[in-house]
Amino acid sequence: MPEIRGYATHAAGAELLAYRYEVGELGADEVQVRISHCGICRSDLHLIDNDWQVSKFPFVPGHEIVGTVEAVGKAVQKLQPGERVGVGWQSGSCGNCTWCRSGKENLCPDSQPTCVHRNGGFADAVRVPARFIIPIPEALESENAAPLLCAGITVYTPLRTYGVSPASRVAIVGVGGLGHLALQFARVFGAEVTAFSTSPAKEEEARAMGAHHFCNSRESKGMKALGGSLDLIISTVNADQDWSAFLTTLRPEGVLCLVGAPSRPLQIPGSLLIQAARTVSGSNTGSPLALAEMLDVAARHKVKAQTERFPMGRVNEAVAKVRKGAVRYRAVLAN
Amino acid sequence: MPEIRGYATHAAGAELLAYRYEVGELGADEVQVRISHCGICRSDLHLIDNDWQVSKFPFVPGHEIVGTVEAVGKAVQKLQPGERVGVGWQSGSCGNCTWCRSGKENLCPDSQPTCVHRNGGFADAVRVPARFIIPIPEALESENAAPLLCAGITVYTPLRTYGVSPASRVAIVGVGGLGHLALQFARVFGAEVTAFSTSPAKEEEARAMGAHHFCNSRESKGMKALGGSLDLIISTVNADQDWSAFLTTLRPEGVLCLVGAPSRPLQIPGSLLIQAARTVSGSNTGSPLALAEMLDVAARHKVKAQTERFPMGRVNEAVAKVRKGAVRYRAVLAN
Known about the structure:
homodimer; alpha/beta; Quinone Oxidoreductase, Chain A, domain 1; Rossmann fold; seven-stranded mixed sheet; six-stranded parallel sheet; 11 helices
């Protein structure tokens, strides 16, 4: 039997150990991808720690995968061995619901993540249904493209959902793995871009990545100056925030869209929503169609993840550094 | 000097007293309306009680006004004495901002309510700028039309904002002054309509007003059965709710829109928003254009407020009954 070699977590919060798992005959609709790079996302840490109570041990984390097609199942069309491809957060869906049939597979109630009850990308290979294999445009470097497959699409989707244009004023909360890509994409959409961060040290980099303005969200003076001015705020952070303060920076009909989930419920005064017809929403990754579009935009507009590369064998060191929030801005494992 | 006679509140929470105020020459852009009817809205009670800390005493409450044009200022066109018209929550705006210029005056940051720092409709007449005078279609009875000018437009706006169609599943939280109109309008839009209420006694009337389904939101079995099924929930209530329970009844991309504001902040788990790209938003009244459209829809589709009429002189009795929540479903004062 063929086997795949990678690194698996065997218990909540444990270090990853070298791991092999057997795979049988390739399914008719499946593709085997030989992995060159895999980004480390905060969601991998949540799964390793079983924070969401959905992890099934042992498993191989990793869902920002770039590699080449190694083999395709009998029914797979349009993918050839040797082709460079990517795999993101999602690797399965029902294929039949409203969402699947309208090109929004990420909203399918039966969506199957790449590394939940499956083995993901901290490995030499992965098997994924062809529907969730995304071609990588030639202009993108594999190492910089890998983080686009989860972090990138996660911040790209709300820019599209809310129709961001050169007339828009967009702010990004948090300059990190997601935030540094959000700033670049928001700039590509032509928006006037504000970076919210509590780390003044990140101002220079935030500006280099596309921010016209930098605001320390702990400073009420700066927040007040933004009052009623923003069309869209994308919040990438997991820490609790003073959501009322952010809401007051929104114009009428403005949107605060979460792509990072704080562990405690948000406190939202209803009057702040009603007064100016404001919205608080959430957005999750994106469909295969959206992924392909986003990669095309990234290639044409030179959006790329700023990465720190680790050999696959040093996965525990990389995970520890992500855990500390010390990576600028995305850790990528390379085979 | 001409004068207007009505009933004013002189201190927070006090009974209304007969009141006269002098008015000078009619402004060039103003219209004087001889009032026949005025609905009592919960917002009037909030203003009487100074709950929002914006009331300036003494003042005449009332902002669901129907009457006839008595006089028009020199610059007023297209309004003739004798014409039947209405006035709602809003009586002023800057006229120059993005919102005013795009027919969304209700979102103008300088919006001026009809009875805040002004005198409203618990009176024999009122003066309002012509821009905020709304013609009343002939088919509507004045008494039933008055509550449409605030309660009606408040629930109509989100149905339009969120594109409700015959394919939509819409739920209304609360069967009261706003809710009973929301059920009727949702049905007119062709939606499958669910009424959420904690008063089983209201089921029959809710169904008569348009609800296909009735769900006691305190019963978890019924709430679970609705899981992931609704496109839009319009919440008309001021009481705190288990918002998570409502959010789980929404489909992917579903919207919970508040038109009633609970006094305490909503507790919203970010994960419920992100998971299925759900939205929590607020909506406030509607513009003059929207008011005219809503009245036209009401006239053609026979939407009408179920009212309890009180002579203007019994305003305190009427206010007391509204305060107790004992009116089915809207109190209207009549001259």
